[in-house]
Amino acid sequence: MHCPFCRHPDSRVIDSRTSDDGLSIRRRRQCPECGGRFTTIETASLNVIKRSGVIEPFSREKVMSGVRKACQGRPVTEADLAVLAQTVEETVRQTGASQLDTNEIGLAILGPLRELDEVAYLRFASVYQAFDSLEDFESAIEQLRADHVRPAPSEAAGA
User: Where is each ATP-cone domain found (predicted)?
Assistant: First the structure.
């Protein structure tokens, strides 16, 4: 790490702290040459491999943008989309991989979106999973209905 003051090619870490969200590390550094102190923020890189083969950095904003289209006209707020995007990022980071296919990102979106809004989930799934017939929609709707009918574990235990 070069000193931003004198460009000395080395620095000494004098303090390290994890950020509040746990996704980055804040380090206080000191230059052995000029004595200047500065802060660095370190994050693990996460890249997405697009269908075309292009590799680009993961972006919460792109997740929100894609899901926003499925949520048009639905009672979903920007705050809801931000929470969903954060959940997706946390999920994909937990895989430990530094590169993920767009397919894996899409799968990570489906679960939280289903909990947020079922209509938006169907819209997103129809594009993401390339529904090409009425039967695909019917199957997805039947699955949603089946999941609603199942009693929760606490309800089953109390019966």
Answer: 46-136
Question: Of 102, 59, 101, nearest to 82 (Cα)?
Answer: 59
The answer to whether 8 and 37 are in contact (CB under 8 A) is no
- Beta-bridge partner residues of 26: 17, 41
> What residues are paired with 56 via a beta bridge?
48
Paired strand residues for 55: 49
Per DSSP, the residues of 97-121 read -SEEEHHHHHHHHHHHHHHH-HHHH
pLDDT digits (tens, 9 = 90+) for 4-56: 999 999 999 999 998 776 778 999 999 999 999 999 988 878 999 998 999 99
List the Cα angle 82/109/130 in 5-degree steps. Answer: 135
Number of H helices, E strands in the chain: 6, 6
**Which pLDDT belongs to residue 159?**
47
Nearest to 114 by CA among 78, 87, 153, 90: 87
